[in-house]
Queue: 2 jobs
Job 1
Amino acid sequence: MYIDIGEYLFRVDKAPNIVINNLKLMYDDAFSGFSHSPADFSVSLSHDSLLRRFVKPQVTFYLGNNSPFKPLPASQSYPVMEWGMNWCIAATDFNRLIVHAAVLVKNNKAIIFPATPGSGKSTLSAYFALSGWKLYSDEMAIIDLDTLKVMPLFRPVCLKNQSISLVKEWFPQSIFTGIAKDTQKGDVAHLKINNFAEFKTFSPVDVVAIVFPKYQKNTKTEPYMINKSTGFEKLAANSFNYNILGRKGFDGIQRLIEKTQQVEINYNDLSDVDNLLTSEFTL
Amino acid sequence: MTKYRIKPSVFLYYPSDHIGVVGFDEDSHETFFINLNSSSLKKLLVHTLFDLPMLKESFECEQVTAKEILNKLLIYKIINEDL
């Protein structure tokens, strides 16, 4: 089976049924038995031994014959597959700048939200994506270093802990996988945003702002412009491959910083952030 | 008078808001962030070789401050002594 996430094509050689069923649910027509082109990554998820199939069952993620992670409990199979797919991209694409960030688009203008601690990135992604924005990624911004455009990825949103019930409450019709309990990130569930037909209408777009959100209880939503060298530092720190890209990465971030605005936002209400960004960047 | 020059492997980014300078050393792949007035540093580094009085003039500062800035540039390995 193949998963077409836009920029990359995965071939799933083997996976437990629960993973296959969740892949069908999350990726609909992007998960199919046929592809016109060769896959970028051949992945599988399997039990390492017969014993581990029955006693405290575990699964291991493989890229080809290599396993980048230790085995994890089988109850976490689906998150392990998603995290493995993230790893494949972050560890092997050295042509584009990859930033640990969410990317949301409105009126063909992208805003990058780097995953700084306390940002509430995935909750924000889910809220915005279910409120009229286009979700280009919940996990990584893929930036072309020649055009500086950000590329769309067809992936679900990974929600954790209280965010799961919060999003279910806000958007009762939303489509979730089951909850994987006690993972390294706590309780985790994946949320489907678009269907593949909608996603195929997305194209690379220009970035207008890099926004560093910070969730704070009982605070008024306030934006603060940050200086460009701080913006550079924070963006580079959140990049998976900046150090590997060398001069190309340095020049790319420099150009990106110059053509965008960098803003910190303290918030406790996502609708305020939506309104603020929409008016600030005339989205 | 000791002369200094920018290391050929170092590339600098002078942000348009003139706050701080970001440097990248292509040899070591290190990135550094320096809290200096970027316009003044840019003015200084148009010269292939410079000395302390030239630095003092570019930054329009006292001798003590000029020495501090010089040390900072040496510590970050942006410049070398011209031997």
Note: DSSP finds three helices and five strands in chain B.
Job 2
Amino acid sequence: MNSPADFTEEDDALRFSGALVLARLGNLPQRLETLAKQPRAIDLSGIERIDTVGAWLIHRLARDSDADVTGANEDAKRLIDQVSQLDKPLQMRPDPTPPFIRVLAQMGAATVSAFRMLYGLLGFFGAILISCWDIIRDPKRFRGNAIARQFEVVGVDALGIIGLMSFLIGIVIAQQGAVQLRQFGAEVFTINLIGRITLRELGVLMTAIMVAGRSGSAFAAQLGSMKLAEEVDAMRTIGVSPIEALVIPRVMATVIMMPLLGFYAALVAIIGGGLFCWISLDIPLITFFQRIREVVPITDLWVGLLKAPVFGLIIAMAGCFQGMQVEGNAEEVGLRTTAAVVQGIFLVIVLDAFFAVFFSSIGWV
Amino acid sequence: MSDTDGEIVISVRGLRNAFGEQVIHDELDLDVHRGEILGVVGGSGTGKSVLMRSIIGLQHPVAGEVHVFGESMIGRDDTEATNVRKRWGVLFQGGALFSTLTVAENVEVPLREYYPELHQQLLDEIASYKIMMSGLPAEAAPKFPSELSGGMKKRAGLARSLALDPELLFLDEPTAGLDPIGAAAFDELTKNLKETLGLTVFLITHDLDTLHAICDRVAVLADRKVIAVGTIPELLALDHPWIQEYFNGPRGRAALGAKR
């Protein structure tokens, strides 16, 4: 309906025609920048329509070449007038920092935030202990329902996925173990491998990773969004301690559920390994379980079961702590949730290394 | 642009929206004329935002027809709808700025998307005057949305919705959450922009002062449809309980008194 914007040069004058609107500009701005000589007059009598972008181009041209605008109708005059009042070059982006300074600043910020986080985590642990003490002194404040609910979410709901994972891990250990040990004619030791590694290490460790991914992240996201919606603040003003109402049930549920889930995971892994041995190595299940009883010392079970609640504490604390740190916007909930999982798994593995050394040195090998 | 007075920019016919069992709109009709500011009012949950989302194609109605600039907006593919989208700007409630871009870059996004041939310098200049036009201070341009107050976010969102020089502007509760001074300034801004740029404005609001100050006509949403459209005196003459309650309640009278 509109012809494209165009102009012709006549002596010192530029005569514009067509629709001087954004959609019909085409290469007009580029052509205006490469004019052979500065115009002395700009004639707008031939244009069909104009919008603010057209008005801006005319204004800029008139400003830079000191030309007079003639033949503009009411609309054009008003728009040009309007944009000329708004002519002020703005900064588009924040000043860039030099890369070297930026790297230094990032390193500094990361160091500070790491220490601040450790300090915060310590404080958070303290707050949990104080709340526990308060609950012990006044058992009426113990929130049985909330804990039972978390038992279900953290423990019962996780049985399926943890079972499947452990079953497959049991099979993988048996299969890889059998392949390697066959080279020494020691296939039968596959049973030792399965029994000891699942009860001592993998059952609990893999469960911890799964719980960190399932529940640690959920804690952070739940508490984070509650923090954003000011639910936590509302609780405080009513006089309910958020630590008691939100954190303690989650931490306790995870601490109690972790050993149970870890034991369950080890058991399912042993069953998976046993089935593999039966099908692939022709070791009957009866023999398999008999061997397990003979070669796995009871201390292996204790090693696994003692680590589990500590891992649970770490995971739940990291999740709740990160959730309670959320401030500002929804984006932070996502960041904090990620941080909760990464932190949880990292701390679990660090502690696992310490446990390994500790249990070896007290003779539980 | 007043030469096209009476031309219908948005036409909604027999619109029906439902979420599951819950019917939001049924047999809803509405016309918006070129060059007017149409205020849309209604109680909470009457589907004002849903109506806007149906018009701009974010919500698929169960039945009915929506025409914008004479083109049907229902069941069109994206490439066809793009030509209509270029001609309108939308300001969402919270501003809906892209959080990873600065205010100036936010304003440049629609320009870049539709007119990639524009040079960076011209883009920056256009973004500059749009930002100034929306009443933001010059320092706001290089800031990120997270550094802005609620009112500034709305102004930045307005600057972005004006980026393509639209003919039609959708504003979803532009003054909600602003202090009275900021709200009055925003009303003034909307009116000025409408007058200088010849905009048609579809304005959802709860703000009685806004209705009195800038709206040419007001559409009232109730009982799942538009029960009345007209100037405020015309609406006051009607005998509908909700309309009477709305405009003649204590707050309505206060706003009316302020107008006089």
Note: The two ends of chain B are 30 Å apart (CA to CA).
